[in-house]
Amino acid sequence: MKKIAVVAMIGGLLQPVSAIEARPTSLEKPLKIARQGSFFIGGRDVSSAALGEIKPYPSSGQIVVDQIYVRFQIPDGKTRSPILLIHGCCLTGAAWETTPDGRSGWDELFVRMRHPVYVMDQAWRGRSAFDPTIINEVREGRAPVNALPVVTSASKEAAWEIFRLGPRYPIAHPGLKYPVAALSALWAQMVPNVAPSLDARSPTVEAISALSQREKGLVVVSHSQSGIYPFLATKAGAKEISAIIAIEPASCPAVGQFPDRSAQPRILVVFGDYIAQSERWLPRLEACRKFVDSAKAAGLDAVLVELPKVGVFGNSHMMMQDTNSAQVATIIDDWLAARHL
Amino acid sequence: MKKIAVVAMIGGLLQPVSAIEARPTSLEKPLKIARQGSFFIGGRDVSSAALGEIKPYPSSGQIVVDQIYVRFQIPDGKTRSPILLIHGCCLTGAAWETTPDGRSGWDELFVRMRHPVYVMDQAWRGRSAFDPTIINEVREGRAPVNALPVVTSASKEAAWEIFRLGPRYPIAHPGLKYPVAALSALWAQMVPNVAPSLDARSPTVEAISALSQREKGLVVVSHSQSGIYPFLATKAGAKEISAIIAIEPASCPAVGQFPDRSAQPRILVVFGDYIAQSERWLPRLEACRKFVDSAKAAGLDAVLVELPKVGVFGNSHMMMQDTNSAQVATIIDDWLAARHL
Questions:
Q1: How confident is the model over B268-311, as pLDDT tens digits?
Q2: Which residues lie closer than 8 Å to A231 by C-beta, 6 or more apart?
Q3: In this complex, do A132 and B194 lie within 8 Å of one another by their Cβ atoms?
């Protein structure tokens, strides 16, 4: 009954709940994988004389950067829409894997819901190589010190507020569903960002396009800093994206900037709890609300879910790791299932 | 018949081949996974005022570095010895995953052989965060330019020789089994190394120890630059390691330095083809031969396999990606199975 209410509230339900295809509910059963593995998308050659030291080889030559690492699992049997998971700032694809307190990550939950799942490391982070040459050039006196990149790591203190775990480190919001007893595993996931700017045009956009060409009907799930990329990819011509699911996007498209007429992805934007107390997220939620309203007015299937408004409380910005992460995944999957995705 | 000959030649067979437990031979069957996911081992807090820029947050605070990312898959059903795969220089755990030409990686092959498999990204590489603070300190004028790390990326040209694909880039060795048509996927896997020195004491050693405490009977498979770490971990007290499998280790322990009396792991060292033509690898093979001989003389179960001497030709340094990578994995697994591992 409760589930039906939630599904109905987030709108667009085309079938009675009983007609939504059955999904496994037990996480205990063995997972049957038809195919799995990893690959890279993109990349560009960089020729440099500042590649560091592997004696006795010269420090000049060619390397490849901007490529994007993608790991995938295809469930055995009949599959639904493929899903791409794109992590946010200061993290890698590991953010979607096992939660800090050891529960199955969304990467596995969506496979169990019969979606082929693709997880990327954004360009220049994690297993996607960054370009180190400018650092060596500065060290060798061949470039000025101010040419060094600003390498950004989110401190525990900053991440605490950005991830909306509480008003300030280490005070938690009342009722917070983040597994704070396992926080050390969150800090361990975080990586420096060497890219010149987090919000600049990113190889991520091209990678989304490339994957959507290959995996028809791709559902692109972004988080936070990656929020704008699926929209940019769609605007740039990625017509095969069936849905964009933006988990607390750092930015939504400006009103009037999306959609164009050539692509009409379904859109779901999800925000968690404690938004009103967050100077960072309140204006972003408001901008996304305007965007969703404008997209709806333009005839798109666009839905904004504020979790507390559908009776789901306590969610942080890291809702894929919150203690009710499976519930949030199910809400998303209900939205997909109602659209036969 | 051929298989029996190979097994016999690499020695130590305790049972007739028919008694070796059956392993799946088809890669087409769905893979049944009991549990999978990822976690981090270790890590240390770093307090810094040089954490880059996430406006409006201060650039001071605490981050965590030295932790090691580990992804794992536990096959469904009865399992054999757990295996840890540790990549080599300039790579990440992705090196063990899907081969450049799209075949199953050793990570999956060993799961199909019923081993729980753990794959790490060495400290400061891939999903294991490096410490960026010194770069920001130099940029901000708070540290001298020569404090910058030497960030090492192997060029295509250097990697070609180190990986023994041929005498020099892009000339391949005759009969080479590396999938050179898919080389771009190899270059895409390579990442910069920010660590002060590849061969210095590494958090990898502690991570091996920690995992061996948790996963009794751990088999540690190293490659190249990581070759010495399992031996160092064993010397430092990791008594639960059942076997060390060193794939073309950059160094073997010096004669007399291993073992100590408290730990007696079984040892398999594997070298590929074209060693005599390699100024880099010939002395390393010779040093490993001396080490294996000394370990045998000390009563250890230690085996050196030079693949051409058991009739397997054309293997590069990247034998986990060569076109006969499944054959090499089977040779290793035969050695394990003969020891009931």
A1: 999 999 999 999 999 999 999 999 999 999 999 999 999 999 99
A2: A244, A252, A253, A258
A3: yes
Q: What is the pLDDT of residues B19-57, one digit of tens each?
A: 334 444 446 689 999 999 999 999 999 999 999 988 899
Cβ-contact B86, B246 below 8 angstroms:
no
User: Which H, E and C letters describe chain A, residue by residue?
Assistant: CHHHHHHHHCCCCCCCHHHCCCCCCCCCCCEEEEEEEEEEECCEEEEECCCCCCCCCCCCEEEEECCEEEEEEEECCCCCCCEEEECCCCCCHHHHCCCCCCCCCHHHHHHHCCCCEEEEECCCCCCCCCCCHHHHHHHCCCCCHHHCCCCECCCHHHHHHHCCCCCECCECCCCCCCCHHHHHHHHHHCCCECCCCCCCCCHHHHHHHHHHHHCCCCEEEEEHHHCCHHHHHHHCCCCCCCEEEEECCCCCCCCCCCCCCCCCCEEEEEECCCHHHCCCHHHHHHHHHHHHHHHHHCCCCEEEEEHHHHCCCCCCCCCCCCCCHHHHHHHHHHHHHHCCC
| Structure tokens belonging to residue A318 | 């890291």
Look at residue A84 in the predicted model and tell me its pLDDT.
98
Cβ-nearest to B192 among A89, A132, A153: A132
Residue recorded with tokens 């060497």:
A194
Are B136 and A151 an interchain contact pair (Cβ–Cβ within 8 Å)?
yes
Residue B112 is encoded by which pair of tokens? 């199909």
pTM: 0.93
pLDDT for B114-151, tens place per residue?
999 999 999 999 999 999 999 999 999 999 999 999 99
Does the distance separating the beta carbons of B37 and A33 come in below 8 Å?
Answer: no
For residue A67, the chain B residues in CB contact (below 8 A) are: 188
Task: Using CA coordinates, name the residue in chain A closest to B61.
Answer: A155
Tokens of B223: 């490659």
Which residues partner with A265 through β-bridges? none
Please say if the pLDDT value at position B162 is more than 90: yes
- At B58 the pLDDT is 92
CA distance B241 to chain A (A): 25
pLDDT in tens, B213-264: 999 999 999 999 999 999 999 988 888 999 999 999 999 999 887 776 677 8
Nearest C-alpha of chain B: how many angstroms from A322? 16
Residues of A in contact with B190 (CB under 8 A): 63-64, 129
The segments of chain A whose pLDDT lies below 70 read 1-28, 196-201, 260-261
* Mutate: best of A26, A48, A54, A190, partner B, most B CBs <10 A: A54
Contacts of B69 in chain A (CB under 8 A): 94, 188
Q: Which residues pair with A96 in a beta bridge?
A: none
pLDDT at position B3 over 90: no
